[in-house]
Amino acid sequence: MPQTVPNDASIASDPVLGTLSIETRTIRKLRIRILPFLLLLYFVSYLDRLNIGFAALTMNPELGITSQQFGFLVGIFFIGYAVFEIPSNLILHKVGARLWIARILIVWGTVAALTGFVQTVRQLYVARFLLGLAEAGYYPGVLLYLTYWFQRREQAQAIALFMTAIPITNALGGPISGLILDRVHWLGLSSWRWLLILEGLPAVIFGVLTFFWLPNRPAEANFLTESEKEWIAGQLRSESDHKRETREISVARTLALGRVWHLAIAALATGAAFYPVFFWMPQIVKGLSDGVSNTAIGFLVMIPNLAGLLAMIPISRSSDRRLERRWHVGIAAIIAGTACVMLGLAHSVFFAVALLSIAVGCVCGYQGPFWSMPGEFLTGSSAAAGIALVTMFVSLGGFVGPYAFGYIRQRTGSMYEALAAAGMICFVFAILVLLLPKNGTGAGSGAGVPDSRTS
């Protein structure tokens, strides 16, 4: 029997087909217009955060920085970052993302570039602390901003697409940083100084662009039609109202919720586990590659990050399709922890790069499902505060993990014990995530949080 092909009139008269049409069109526009720009901004952000790992290849010998000192200067960034996380996110929610994210970019880009002129380890400590303070609120701010545009069933993929900046930054930033270290010695300044200066300035440029390019909410989006604005606003409003069905949650009550603190402690564990691996990756590879240039190390470091890029989207898509977060995060974390423990046994660069690829692939893969968890049960100002609290604990993990890693490495003289410790923390993180309640009314979640399976 021949099939009937619906025309425009039948689509318009059929509310189901009409809704599907506007949904597909609107989501496609949001992904094309919002996510690539946010990804580009996060690329700039992460480059400024992680380039210290490459700078260390020549900076540490020049300034006489020990492993323990390097761990501290990596970690002190996150202390500055954590200090201003919650107030920054609340300000963003009040004044709008366009102005506040632009301000963050311009200030941190200026501080990042000026870091290239430090003369002592203590000055470097201060510069890294100020850089964290300047960048504070950017990541949780973007996570909050995505909840203004994407529904729950789209959030893990949206977050994952945004966070592909992590492996992209490492994949592209590695060779770029290696080339700068090997080639750029202008005006008598060391190459690691130029590395920090040249990779800091783009943040200032993109800060100005952000002010003119980034809309605050769907109502301000010139790239959407009126019907598309009304559709996405209605969908988000419906989800928000459903989350408030049991009880409106204030900021103060949000910060007392057991479920939020459970996520925060898990975030502390993941920050303590994966930041040391990312920051020490160039040194891990160099330690197994005698006589290899910094440029070659940059290309070798690219491989694990390409694995991370390939893993992010399918894991997040699977998580969104099933509306399941815990097992997607937990299984990936267990595999990453196993790879970290085995890294200590690696005696060849090829084996190390293979294990790093597994670890980084899994860590990058679970980012989307994990960071969509707060949006499962929080909305509005409570989401601003809750997301900021969780990311603040990631930042604290970013201090504890690298400092402990550097301390263990200096005391033992090898990477094995430090990598094994990072692997064990991955296991702890997996257990914490798997112990999270399936819904907001479970143990430890606190009263007044609706069932996440239906929110």
Main β sheet profile:
none
CATH homologous superfamily classification = MFS general substrate transporter like domains
The number of distinct β-strands equals 0
Number of domains: 1
User: How much of the polypeptide forms β-strand, as a percent range?
Assistant: under 5%
Derived structural class: mainly alpha
Approximate helicity band = over 70%
Kindly report how far apart the N and C termini lie: 41 Å
CATH class: Mainly Alpha
Query: What would the average pLDDT be, to the nearest integer?
Result: 85
CATH architecture classification:
Up-down Bundle
Number of helical segments? 20
Unreliable stretches, pLDDT < 50, 5 or more residues? Answer: 1-14, 440-455
Order of helices and strands: HHHHHHHHHHHHHHHHHHHH
Rg over CA atoms, rounded to whole Å, is 22 Å
Shape: globular
Quote the CATH topology. Answer: Growth Hormone, Chain: A
Description of the structure:
With 455 residues, this protein is mostly helical. It has one domain (23-434): Up-down Bundle (Growth Hormone, Chain: A), CATH 1.20.1250. The protein is built from 20 helices and no strands. It has helices spanning 8-13, 15-33, 35-63, 67-83, 85-95, 97-114, 121-135, 138-147, 152-163, 165-183, 191-213, 226-243, 251-254, 258-287, 294-322, 326-343, 349-365, 367-371, 380-412, 416-434. Helix 19 runs antiparallel to helix 20. The longest helix is centred in the C-terminal third of the chain and has 33 residues, at 380-412. The two termini are 41 Å apart.
Fold topology:
Elements: H1 8-13, H2 15-33, H3 35-63, H4 67-83, H5 85-95, H6 97-114, H7 121-135, H8 138-147, H9 152-163, H10 165-183, H11 191-213, H12 226-243, H13 251-254, H14 258-287, H15 294-322, H16 326-343, H17 349-365, H18 367-371, H19 380-412, H20 416-434
Helix pairs in contact: 2-12, 3-9, 3-10, 3-11, 3-14, 4-7, 4-19, 5-6, 5-8, 5-19, 6-7, 6-8, 6-11, 8-19, 9-15, 10-11, 10-15, 14-15, 14-17, 14-19, 14-20, 15-17, 16-17, 16-20, 19-20
